[in-house]
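Table S4 entry, Acyl-coenzyme A thioesterase THEM4.
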Amino acid sequence: MGDETVAHFLLGEKFTALSGSVYGGLVASLLDCHGTGSAAAFACVAENIDLENTEIIPVRCVTASLKIDFKAPTTMGTELELIGKLRSIEGRKIWVDMTLSAGDILCATGEIFSVHHIPHHPFFL
């Protein structure tokens, strides 16, 4: 994994906004989910947690801030690729830069600031 994560999705027609395009809210949700998942994975690597031999990732992250720039319509019926790249980790704070592409077309970029969720921490009560 290192400092990059990759996910692939192929969406059905029920996620169409305009004919042939994925609706923007789903693009935002995919980036949010990939961003927090990537942040959790990067936190595991930083804490030397072996992800290859773990069924459940023991770290959870929550979104503190999410910024998305839509670059082009996201084509329906084309496999989507999400890439997350670690920008930095400072304690429980994790920043990840992301892209979402449909084939060779860059459809959206995003940046997420996530916080490593610690159950029963006063911040989350």
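The chain has one domain: 4-120.
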